Amino acid sequence: MRILVTGGAGFIGSNFIRWALSDHPQLTVVNLDALTYAGNLQNLEGIPAAHHVFMRGDIRRREDVDGAIGDGVDAIVHFAAETHVDRSILAADDFLTTNVLGTQVLIEAARRAGVPRFVHVSTDEVYGSLAPDAPAFTETDPLEPNSPYSASKAASDHLIRAAFHTFQFPAVITRCSNNYGPYQFPEKFVPLFVTNALTGEPCPLYGDGENVRDWLHVEDHARAIWAVLERGQLGEVYNVGGHAEMTNRQVAEHILDLAGAPRSLIRPVADRPGHDRRYAMNPDKLERELGWTPKWNFADGIAATVSWYRTHEDWWRAVKSGAYRDYYERQYGGRLS
Ligand code: NAD
Ligand code: DAU
To answer: Is residue 252 part of a domain?
Structure first.
Protein backbone atom coordinates (compact mmCIF):
# COMPACT_ATOMS: atom_id res chain seq x y z
CA MET A 1 0.00 0.00 0.00
CA ARG A 2 1.28 3.47 -0.91
CA ILE A 3 -0.31 6.53 0.64
CA LEU A 4 0.27 10.24 0.25
CA VAL A 5 0.36 12.19 3.51
CA THR A 6 0.23 15.97 3.35
CA GLY A 7 1.77 17.96 6.22
CA GLY A 8 3.71 14.95 7.47
CA ALA A 9 6.55 17.05 8.91
CA GLY A 10 4.22 18.67 11.44
CA PHE A 11 3.09 17.43 14.83
CA ILE A 12 0.24 15.02 14.07
CA GLY A 13 1.38 14.07 10.56
CA SER A 14 4.82 12.96 11.77
CA ASN A 15 3.31 11.00 14.67
CA PHE A 16 0.86 9.41 12.24
CA ILE A 17 3.64 8.34 9.85
CA ARG A 18 5.76 6.96 12.69
CA TRP A 19 2.83 5.00 14.11
CA ALA A 20 1.51 3.79 10.72
CA LEU A 21 4.90 2.49 9.56
CA SER A 22 5.55 0.69 12.83
CA ASP A 23 2.14 -0.97 12.68
CA HIS A 24 2.13 -1.65 8.91
CA PRO A 25 5.65 -2.58 7.79
CA GLN A 26 4.61 -3.04 4.11
CA LEU A 27 3.33 0.53 3.86
CA THR A 28 5.10 3.26 1.87
CA VAL A 29 4.37 6.89 2.72
CA VAL A 30 4.96 9.79 0.36
CA ASN A 31 5.13 12.88 2.56
CA LEU A 32 4.36 16.21 0.86
CA ASP A 33 5.15 19.13 3.13
CA ALA A 34 6.03 22.76 2.41
CA LEU A 35 8.16 23.02 5.58
CA THR A 36 6.54 26.17 6.86
CA TYR A 37 7.68 27.30 10.31
CA ALA A 38 5.60 24.38 11.70
CA GLY A 39 7.25 21.71 9.56
CA ASN A 40 10.38 20.13 10.99
CA LEU A 41 12.33 17.31 9.38
CA GLN A 42 13.72 16.38 12.78
CA ASN A 43 10.21 15.19 13.65
CA LEU A 44 10.83 12.41 11.14
CA GLU A 45 14.19 11.16 12.40
CA GLY A 46 14.33 7.40 12.87
CA ILE A 47 11.53 6.72 10.39
CA PRO A 48 12.73 3.95 8.01
CA ALA A 49 13.90 5.70 4.82
CA ALA A 50 12.98 2.73 2.62
CA HIS A 51 9.31 3.32 3.41
CA HIS A 52 9.19 7.10 3.61
CA VAL A 53 9.64 9.44 0.65
CA PHE A 54 9.84 13.09 1.64
CA MET A 55 8.91 15.67 -1.00
CA ARG A 56 9.12 19.34 -0.23
CA GLY A 57 6.14 20.96 -1.90
CA ASP A 58 3.10 23.13 -1.44
CA ILE A 59 -0.47 21.83 -1.57
CA ARG A 60 -1.47 25.13 -3.16
CA ARG A 61 0.63 24.28 -6.24
CA ARG A 62 -0.98 21.85 -8.64
CA GLU A 63 2.36 20.66 -10.04
CA ASP A 64 3.66 19.83 -6.55
CA VAL A 65 0.57 17.79 -5.75
CA ASP A 66 0.56 16.01 -9.13
CA GLY A 67 4.26 15.19 -8.64
CA ALA A 68 3.59 13.71 -5.21
CA ILE A 69 0.72 11.57 -6.47
CA GLY A 70 2.98 10.42 -9.31
CA ASP A 71 1.73 7.22 -10.95
CA GLY A 72 -0.91 6.88 -8.26
CA VAL A 73 -1.45 6.25 -4.58
CA ASP A 74 -3.96 4.08 -2.74
CA ALA A 75 -5.07 6.91 -0.49
CA ILE A 76 -4.39 10.48 0.61
CA VAL A 77 -4.39 11.51 4.27
CA HIS A 78 -4.60 15.29 4.39
CA PHE A 79 -3.07 16.99 7.44
CA ALA A 80 -1.37 20.03 5.86
CA ALA A 81 -2.77 23.24 7.29
CA GLU A 82 -2.02 26.44 9.11
CA THR A 83 -3.10 25.41 12.60
CA HIS A 84 -2.44 28.02 15.28
CA VAL A 85 -5.51 30.03 16.29
CA ASP A 86 -3.49 32.97 17.66
CA ARG A 87 -1.64 33.33 14.35
CA SER A 88 -4.92 33.29 12.43
CA ILE A 89 -6.12 36.21 14.54
CA LEU A 90 -2.99 38.19 13.65
CA ALA A 91 -3.03 37.36 9.91
CA ALA A 92 -5.42 35.01 8.16
CA ASP A 93 -4.08 34.98 4.57
CA ASP A 94 -2.09 31.74 4.76
CA PHE A 95 -4.98 30.06 6.56
CA LEU A 96 -7.26 30.80 3.64
CA THR A 97 -4.84 29.92 0.88
CA THR A 98 -3.54 26.69 2.46
CA ASN A 99 -6.54 25.40 4.35
CA VAL A 100 -9.20 26.31 1.80
CA LEU A 101 -7.57 26.64 -1.63
CA GLY A 102 -4.93 23.99 -0.88
CA THR A 103 -7.65 21.49 -0.02
CA GLN A 104 -9.43 22.23 -3.30
CA VAL A 105 -6.19 21.75 -5.25
CA LEU A 106 -5.81 18.35 -3.56
CA ILE A 107 -9.40 17.36 -4.32
CA GLU A 108 -8.94 18.17 -7.99
CA ALA A 109 -5.57 16.40 -8.25
CA ALA A 110 -6.96 13.32 -6.50
CA ARG A 111 -9.96 13.25 -8.84
CA ARG A 112 -7.74 13.56 -11.94
CA ALA A 113 -5.56 10.70 -10.72
CA GLY A 114 -8.51 8.56 -9.62
CA VAL A 115 -7.24 8.22 -6.03
CA PRO A 116 -9.70 5.78 -4.43
CA ARG A 117 -9.71 7.13 -0.86
CA PHE A 118 -9.16 10.50 0.83
CA VAL A 119 -9.14 11.22 4.58
CA HIS A 120 -9.57 14.88 5.45
CA VAL A 121 -8.24 15.64 8.94
CA SER A 122 -10.37 18.31 10.53
CA THR A 123 -11.05 19.64 14.00
CA ASP A 124 -13.66 20.03 16.75
CA GLU A 125 -13.24 23.80 16.43
CA VAL A 126 -15.48 23.87 13.35
CA TYR A 127 -18.49 23.30 15.65
CA GLY A 128 -17.84 26.50 17.62
CA SER A 129 -18.11 26.82 21.38
CA LEU A 130 -20.23 24.86 23.89
CA ALA A 131 -22.14 26.16 26.91
CA PRO A 132 -20.91 24.63 30.21
CA ASP A 133 -23.75 22.12 30.52
CA ALA A 134 -24.35 21.42 26.80
CA PRO A 135 -23.87 17.87 25.49
CA ALA A 136 -20.67 17.13 23.60
CA PHE A 137 -20.51 17.82 19.85
CA THR A 138 -21.93 15.16 17.52
CA GLU A 139 -21.33 14.87 13.78
CA THR A 140 -24.74 16.34 12.93
CA ASP A 141 -24.23 19.57 14.89
CA PRO A 142 -24.09 22.74 12.77
CA LEU A 143 -20.71 24.25 11.92
CA GLU A 144 -20.33 27.56 13.78
CA PRO A 145 -16.62 28.41 13.61
CA ASN A 146 -15.44 31.41 15.63
CA SER A 147 -11.84 32.08 14.59
CA PRO A 148 -10.27 32.65 11.17
CA TYR A 149 -8.52 29.27 11.68
CA SER A 150 -11.69 27.34 12.43
CA ALA A 151 -13.58 29.19 9.67
CA SER A 152 -10.93 28.12 7.17
CA LYS A 153 -11.12 24.50 8.39
CA ALA A 154 -14.93 24.57 8.19
CA ALA A 155 -14.65 25.87 4.62
CA SER A 156 -12.35 22.97 3.75
CA ASP A 157 -14.82 20.50 5.30
CA HIS A 158 -17.55 21.99 3.11
CA LEU A 159 -15.39 21.61 0.00
CA ILE A 160 -14.89 17.93 0.81
CA ARG A 161 -18.60 17.51 1.43
CA ALA A 162 -19.46 19.26 -1.85
CA ALA A 163 -16.99 17.09 -3.80
CA PHE A 164 -18.56 13.94 -2.36
CA HIS A 165 -22.06 15.17 -3.14
CA THR A 166 -21.30 16.39 -6.66
CA PHE A 167 -18.65 13.98 -7.91
CA GLN A 168 -18.91 11.03 -5.46
CA PHE A 169 -15.40 12.03 -4.38
CA PRO A 170 -14.34 9.14 -2.09
CA ALA A 171 -13.64 11.12 1.06
CA VAL A 172 -14.14 10.72 4.79
CA ILE A 173 -13.75 13.55 7.32
CA THR A 174 -12.35 13.20 10.85
CA ARG A 175 -12.87 15.92 13.45
CA CYS A 176 -10.64 15.60 16.49
CA SER A 177 -10.28 17.37 19.81
CA ASN A 178 -7.04 18.88 21.17
CA ASN A 179 -4.01 16.65 20.75
CA TYR A 180 -0.91 16.47 22.93
CA GLY A 181 2.24 14.34 22.72
CA PRO A 182 5.78 14.31 21.27
CA TYR A 183 6.96 16.73 18.55
CA GLN A 184 4.30 19.41 19.11
CA PHE A 185 5.48 22.89 18.18
CA PRO A 186 6.00 24.80 21.45
CA GLU A 187 3.70 27.67 20.52
CA LYS A 188 0.78 25.40 21.50
CA PHE A 189 -0.45 25.26 25.09
CA VAL A 190 0.89 21.88 26.28
CA PRO A 191 4.44 21.98 24.86
CA LEU A 192 4.76 25.69 25.71
CA PHE A 193 3.84 25.07 29.34
CA VAL A 194 5.94 21.89 29.59
CA THR A 195 9.09 23.47 28.17
CA ASN A 196 8.66 26.69 30.15
CA ALA A 197 8.09 24.67 33.32
CA LEU A 198 11.26 22.67 32.66
CA THR A 199 13.28 25.89 32.35
CA GLY A 200 11.51 27.81 35.12
CA GLU A 201 9.97 30.38 32.79
CA PRO A 202 6.48 31.92 33.23
CA CYS A 203 3.50 30.09 31.71
CA PRO A 204 0.94 32.54 30.22
CA LEU A 205 -2.61 31.44 31.03
CA TYR A 206 -5.20 33.25 28.91
CA GLY A 207 -8.14 34.99 30.63
CA ASP A 208 -9.53 33.27 33.71
CA GLY A 209 -8.04 29.90 32.76
CA GLU A 210 -11.47 28.25 32.92
CA ASN A 211 -11.77 27.48 29.18
CA VAL A 212 -12.33 23.78 28.65
CA ARG A 213 -10.63 21.54 26.09
CA ASP A 214 -11.05 17.78 25.50
CA TRP A 215 -7.56 16.24 25.36
CA LEU A 216 -6.40 13.24 23.31
CA HIS A 217 -2.96 11.68 23.00
CA VAL A 218 -1.70 12.06 19.42
CA GLU A 219 -1.11 8.31 19.09
CA ASP A 220 -4.81 7.68 19.71
CA HIS A 221 -5.59 10.23 17.00
CA ALA A 222 -3.24 8.36 14.62
CA ARG A 223 -5.05 5.09 15.38
CA ALA A 224 -8.42 6.74 14.77
CA ILE A 225 -7.31 8.12 11.40
CA TRP A 226 -6.05 4.68 10.40
CA ALA A 227 -9.37 3.09 11.34
CA VAL A 228 -11.21 5.68 9.25
CA LEU A 229 -8.76 5.23 6.37
CA GLU A 230 -9.35 1.48 6.36
CA ARG A 231 -13.01 1.18 7.27
CA GLY A 232 -14.70 4.61 7.41
CA GLN A 233 -17.80 5.00 5.29
CA LEU A 234 -17.32 7.36 2.35
CA GLY A 235 -19.09 10.71 2.71
CA GLU A 236 -19.24 10.37 6.50
CA VAL A 237 -17.79 12.45 9.33
CA TYR A 238 -16.25 10.83 12.43
CA ASN A 239 -15.67 12.73 15.65
CA VAL A 240 -12.54 11.78 17.58
CA GLY A 241 -12.18 12.60 21.27
CA GLY A 242 -10.63 11.36 24.47
CA HIS A 243 -13.43 11.79 27.04
CA ALA A 244 -10.96 14.06 28.83
CA GLU A 245 -12.48 17.49 29.39
CA MET A 246 -10.42 19.79 31.58
CA THR A 247 -10.01 23.47 32.23
CA ASN A 248 -6.77 25.04 31.05
CA ARG A 249 -5.92 25.80 34.68
CA GLN A 250 -6.26 22.12 35.62
CA VAL A 251 -4.01 21.08 32.74
CA ALA A 252 -1.48 23.79 33.60
CA GLU A 253 -1.30 22.71 37.25
CA HIS A 254 -0.93 19.08 36.25
CA ILE A 255 1.97 19.91 33.93
CA LEU A 256 3.78 22.06 36.49
CA ASP A 257 3.45 19.37 39.14
CA LEU A 258 4.81 16.71 36.76
CA ALA A 259 7.70 18.96 35.77
CA GLY A 260 8.49 19.63 39.44
CA ALA A 261 7.96 23.38 38.92
CA PRO A 262 6.06 25.74 41.24
CA ARG A 263 2.47 26.58 40.30
CA SER A 264 3.43 30.24 40.80
CA LEU A 265 4.90 30.09 37.26
CA ILE A 266 1.32 30.32 35.97
CA ARG A 267 0.77 33.96 34.96
CA PRO A 268 -2.70 35.21 33.99
CA VAL A 269 -2.47 37.23 30.77
CA ALA A 270 -4.97 38.99 28.50
CA ASP A 271 -7.47 36.64 26.90
CA ARG A 272 -7.37 35.50 23.26
CA PRO A 273 -9.94 37.56 21.30
CA GLY A 274 -13.05 35.48 20.60
CA HIS A 275 -11.67 32.66 22.79
CA ASP A 276 -13.95 29.59 22.55
CA ARG A 277 -15.13 28.67 26.02
CA ARG A 278 -15.56 24.93 25.76
CA TYR A 279 -15.01 22.06 23.35
CA ALA A 280 -16.11 18.47 24.01
CA MET A 281 -16.38 15.66 21.50
CA ASN A 282 -18.81 12.77 21.38
CA PRO A 283 -16.88 9.96 19.60
CA ASP A 284 -19.69 7.34 19.92
CA LYS A 285 -19.98 6.86 16.16
CA LEU A 286 -16.28 6.06 15.76
CA GLU A 287 -16.36 3.73 18.74
CA ARG A 288 -19.55 1.98 17.66
CA GLU A 289 -18.93 1.68 13.90
CA LEU A 290 -15.17 1.24 13.73
CA GLY A 291 -14.37 -0.19 17.16
CA TRP A 292 -11.90 2.57 18.06
CA THR A 293 -11.30 3.53 21.69
CA PRO A 294 -8.53 5.67 23.13
CA LYS A 295 -5.68 3.70 24.70
CA TRP A 296 -4.23 6.54 26.74
CA ASN A 297 -5.92 8.12 29.73
CA PHE A 298 -4.97 11.74 30.32
CA ALA A 299 -2.96 11.16 33.51
CA ASP A 300 -0.67 8.58 31.88
CA GLY A 301 -0.54 10.38 28.54
CA ILE A 302 0.48 13.75 29.95
CA ALA A 303 3.03 12.13 32.29
CA ALA A 304 4.59 10.33 29.30
CA THR A 305 4.53 13.58 27.34
CA VAL A 306 6.28 15.62 30.04
CA SER A 307 8.85 12.86 30.31
CA TRP A 308 9.35 12.90 26.49
CA TYR A 309 10.07 16.66 26.50
CA ARG A 310 12.41 16.16 29.47
CA THR A 311 14.46 13.63 27.49
CA HIS A 312 14.26 15.45 24.15
CA GLU A 313 15.60 18.82 25.18
CA ASP A 314 17.75 19.05 22.03
CA TRP A 315 14.60 18.83 19.89
CA TRP A 316 12.65 21.62 21.54
CA ARG A 317 15.64 23.87 22.18
CA ALA A 318 16.40 23.74 18.44
CA VAL A 319 12.79 24.71 17.70
CA LYS A 320 12.73 27.53 20.21
CA SER A 321 16.07 28.94 19.01
CA GLY A 322 15.17 28.57 15.33
CA ALA A 323 18.14 26.24 14.69
CA TYR A 324 15.77 23.52 13.47
CA ARG A 325 15.57 25.40 10.17
CA ASP A 326 19.26 24.60 9.47
CA TYR A 327 18.55 20.88 9.43
CA TYR A 328 17.02 21.10 5.96
CA GLU A 329 20.14 22.78 4.62
CA ARG A 330 22.33 20.01 6.04
CA GLN A 331 20.11 17.26 4.64
CA TYR A 332 19.17 18.70 1.26
CA GLY A 333 21.63 21.51 0.63
CA GLY A 334 18.85 24.09 0.09
CA ARG A 335 17.87 27.09 2.13
CA LEU A 336 14.49 27.52 3.83
CA SER A 337 13.10 31.02 3.62
P1 NAD B 1 1.19 21.54 12.49
O2 NAD B 1 1.03 23.01 12.43
O3 NAD B 1 2.07 20.94 13.55
O4 NAD B 1 1.73 20.98 11.10
C5 NAD B 1 1.22 21.42 9.87
C6 NAD B 1 2.13 20.88 8.76
O7 NAD B 1 1.57 21.28 7.51
C8 NAD B 1 3.56 21.43 8.82
O9 NAD B 1 4.50 20.40 8.64
C10 NAD B 1 3.60 22.43 7.67
O11 NAD B 1 4.91 22.58 7.11
C12 NAD B 1 2.62 21.81 6.69
N13 NAD B 1 2.04 22.79 5.76
C14 NAD B 1 1.47 24.00 6.06
N15 NAD B 1 1.09 24.63 4.94
C16 NAD B 1 1.38 23.79 3.91
C17 NAD B 1 1.21 23.88 2.50
N18 NAD B 1 0.66 24.97 1.93
N19 NAD B 1 1.62 22.83 1.74
C20 NAD B 1 2.19 21.74 2.30
N21 NAD B 1 2.40 21.62 3.63
C22 NAD B 1 2.00 22.63 4.42
O23 NAD B 1 -0.27 20.94 12.57
P24 NAD B 1 -0.86 19.73 13.43
O25 NAD B 1 -1.15 20.21 14.79
O26 NAD B 1 -0.01 18.56 13.21
O27 NAD B 1 -2.28 19.54 12.69
C28 NAD B 1 -2.38 18.70 11.55
C29 NAD B 1 -3.82 18.69 11.07
O30 NAD B 1 -4.67 18.21 12.12
C31 NAD B 1 -4.38 20.05 10.70
O32 NAD B 1 -5.19 19.91 9.56
C33 NAD B 1 -5.20 20.48 11.90
O34 NAD B 1 -6.25 21.33 11.52
C35 NAD B 1 -5.72 19.14 12.39
N36 NAD B 1 -6.01 19.04 13.83
C37 NAD B 1 -5.08 19.42 14.76
C38 NAD B 1 -5.37 19.25 16.12
C39 NAD B 1 -4.35 19.61 17.19
O40 NAD B 1 -4.68 19.52 18.38
N41 NAD B 1 -3.14 19.98 16.87
C42 NAD B 1 -6.59 18.71 16.52
C43 NAD B 1 -7.52 18.36 15.52
C44 NAD B 1 -7.21 18.51 14.18
O1 DAU C 1 -9.31 21.59 19.27
C2 DAU C 1 -8.46 21.23 18.24
C3 DAU C 1 -7.54 22.39 17.97
O4 DAU C 1 -6.63 22.45 19.07
C5 DAU C 1 -6.77 22.28 16.65
O6 DAU C 1 -7.70 22.30 15.60
C7 DAU C 1 -5.79 23.44 16.51
O8 DAU C 1 -5.01 23.29 15.35
C9 DAU C 1 -4.87 23.44 17.73
O10 DAU C 1 -3.99 24.54 17.66
C11 DAU C 1 -5.69 23.49 19.01
O12 DAU C 1 -6.36 24.78 19.15
P13 DAU C 1 -6.49 25.51 20.58
O14 DAU C 1 -6.67 26.93 20.34
O15 DAU C 1 -7.46 24.80 21.44
O16 DAU C 1 -5.02 25.16 21.13
P17 DAU C 1 -3.89 26.03 21.85
O18 DAU C 1 -2.80 25.08 22.23
O19 DAU C 1 -3.52 27.25 21.10
O20 DAU C 1 -4.65 26.49 23.19
C21 DAU C 1 -5.27 25.54 24.06
C22 DAU C 1 -5.98 26.33 25.13
O23 DAU C 1 -4.99 26.97 25.96
C24 DAU C 1 -6.86 27.43 24.60
O25 DAU C 1 -8.01 27.56 25.41
C26 DAU C 1 -6.01 28.69 24.71
C27 DAU C 1 -5.14 28.40 25.93
N28 DAU C 1 -3.78 28.98 25.91
C29 DAU C 1 -3.02 28.77 24.80
C30 DAU C 1 -1.73 29.26 24.73
C31 DAU C 1 -0.89 29.08 23.50
C32 DAU C 1 -3.29 29.63 27.02
O33 DAU C 1 -3.97 29.78 28.04
N34 DAU C 1 -2.01 30.13 26.96
C35 DAU C 1 -1.21 29.98 25.85
O36 DAU C 1 -0.06 30.46 25.86
So the answer is: no
How many domains are contained in the chain? 1
204 lies in some domain? no
Pinpoint the alpha helices (H) of 124-239.
148-167, 189-199, 218-231
125 is catalytic: yes
- 255-285 pLDDT per residue, tens: 999 999 999 999 999 999 999 999 999 999 9
> To the nearest whole percent, how much of the chain has pLDDT over 70?
99
Q: Which atom of ligand 2 is nearest to the CA of 147?
A: 14
- Region for 256 from its dihedrals, namely left if φ exceeds 0, alpha if ψ lies in -120 to 50, beta otherwise: alpha
Does any domain span residue 203? no
Closest ligand 2 atom to residue 252 Cα is 33
Instruction: Tell which one of 189, 210, 216 to mutate to probe ligand 2, the residue whose CB is within 8 A of the most ligand atoms.
Output: 189
| Ligand with an atom nearest the CA of residue 60 | 1
pLDDT greater than 80 at residue 240: yes
